[in-house]
Each structure stands twice: as structure tokens, then as C-alpha cells.
Amino acid sequence: MNHDTGATHSPNVTELRALYRAAEARAARLRFIIEARNLLDARTFEAAALEVLSRLADFAGASFAELVFPSSREELPVQLTVGKSTSPGSDSILFTSQDDSGFCLTLIGPPRGLGVDADDRQTLEVVAGQLADACNLQRQAAEKQALLGDLERQRSELAALVAQLIQAQEQERQRVALDLHDGSAQLAAGLSYRLQDLSARIGEKHALKPEIDQLATLARRSVADLRAAIADLRPPELDDLGVAAALRTRLDAIAGLEVIADLDAASDRWPTSAGIIFYRVAQEAITNVIKHAEASRLVVRLFEDGKGEAHLEVIDDGKGIVEECPPPVQMRGGRLGIVGMRERLALLGGRFEIVAGSSGGTHVRAVAPLRQETTSE
């Protein structure tokens, strides 16, 4: 037996129209969601939120729309509104959405207005979620920018404090140098002159002549050592000419070593604190080479790279780092100096390393950012 089921399963015109309208409604909702997303992506949150809020009110048939979102840095929440309530106290809430961050979206319509069906409510939820995400991203960006600003201010304040600390240290060095010059150095020089005068007056045949000459020689060496110490405490070239000129003067005074100096003249224009610290680190490294390395060649480089960082390299061809030396010998030698160099670089936020040279000897590297000094209030 044959059955004709075509009429039963073929949709009539009314059903086709309903399906078409449902498809159009879904497409319209999708367009609405995409347009809202595009608006939020293309503009700042505050500028886009008002336009999206107005479109939400139109979509839901609301007479009044309110958006409350938290502001950054613990400030009061920000409120945006569209339209106005026609019957305060009797209007109905068509839609509301909120989250734990303080974001809240409310759509209000007249008491006899059309309700929001399930599909429209789902669309409103999606767009409200987009608003909340954009709000959170904007708040996080603002907080990040504020934190970066705070960090930059702290860096500036730290740079100012470091400059003051270094200046205080150098003033103390200068005071000690002046005290030595006016006190011990003068006494030692006076003693040297008196011994030389006494040696000349007693004559060559006097029994005490050799001993007095030895004492006069020791006195002269003491005067020379004191003057060298005074110059190391505060070299006048550092104030008058800059770090490169002061280092060059220090290197020119070295005897018994082949010295190669590659000193960038631009370093003389570095911030005062950076120039002083790099001079002190170089001074300590050079002293270690002269006293402990048994080297025949010394290379000193001072320069600034393209990233705004200062560099110092001190390279020698001496006996290198002796790991098997017992701790007391290390502490008497370069180890205390290494600690001092590392601590000085740390004041500038810099890095310090001392490694064995590629062909023997020792390679000292120091790097620190060059920050503009500011006055700390």
C-alpha cells in the first residue's frame, strides 16, 4: 500500500516565513554583537562604552540605560547613562548584569513595555560580557601605567639618593685627604727635612750618619706614600676634567707595565655619581693588578654603548685568579677589593664580574645604566 507523505512534511508558506524571520533575527543579533565588539576594540573604553550603551538600550527597547564601572587606583566608580526614566519608581528592570569587580549594567523600560525574550537576553549577556572584559582590560592598563609611573618616580628618587650618598662619601674622602695633607703629610715632610739637615751637619765621618740617612730615606718614602694616598682619596682631575681624564692620569703614573688605555672622552660628561663610581672601581681593579697579578700588560677600556649603559673593562696578562689560595690570603688580597667594587656598582643598579682571561690573566667587567640625576626633596 502506498502513502503520500509529501503534504505532511513540506513546510507551508507561514512556516517558511517564520524560519526566515528567525534566521534574520539571529543574524541581526550576531551583527549587533560583532559591531559592539568592533566599537570596543577601535576606541577607548569610555568613548566606546557610551555608544554601546545607547545601542543596548535601543536593542532592548529600554528608555533608560545605566553603566557603572570601577575606576582604577581605588577611586570612585564611574557612571554612564543614556536616556531617562519615564516613570521613576514604577519602571521595570528589563535587564541587569554585574560582576565582582564592580561592573554593573542596567536597562530600564516602561511598566507596560515589551519584555526581553530568552534569545535577546542571551545577546545582551554576551555584549555585557564584552563591556565587562573591555572595562577590566582598560582598568588593568591604567593600573599598569600608574605602577610604571610610580616605579619610574622611585627610580628617580633612588638615583637622587645614590647621588647624595656618593657625594657624601666623596666629601668625607676629601675631608680625610685634607686632614692628611695638613697633618701627617706636613709632619712627615718636616721630619724628612730635619733628618736631611741633621745628616748634612754631622758630616760623613759621624758614626750615626748611615742610620740617619736611612731614617731620612724612610721619611721621604712616607711623604711620597702619603701624597699618593691623598691623590687616590680625591684626585683633582676627577672634579676638574672628568673620569676619563682622571683615569688617564692614574694610568700615566704606572711604571713597569705596558699600559693600553681606551677611554671614551664622552665619559667625562656622565652623571657625577656614575663617573665617581666607575673611577673607584677602575682604581681598585688597577691596584689589584699592580699589587697581585704579576702582569706585564694592562688594558683599560671605558665607554658607553648605544643602550645608555656605561662599561668598564680592566684586563691583564698576569697569573690570573688563583682558586686554590687559602681564604686568609684571598681576603688580604683582591677579595675585599672585589666586594667593594661589586657594592659600588650595586648603588647604580649595575653588574660586576671578574673572570679568567681567554689567554690567561684576569678580565674585570663593570656595567651600569646611566640615569639622569635628580634632586630628592
UniProtKB/TrEMBL annotation:
Domain of life the protein comes from: Bacteria
CDD domains on file: HATPase_UhpB-NarQ-NarX-like
Keyword terms of this UniProt record: Cell membrane, Coiled coil, Kinase, Membrane, Transferase, Transmembrane, Transmembrane helix, Two-component regulatory system
Any coiled-coil regions, as ranges: 137-171
Membrane topology of the entry: Multi-pass membrane protein
Any GO MF annotation of the entry: protein dimerization activity
Record bears the keyword Coiled coil: yes
Localization per Swiss-Prot or TrEMBL: Cell membrane
Broad class of where this protein is predominantly found: membrane
Protein name: Two-component sensor histidine kinase
Organism: Rhizobium leguminosarum
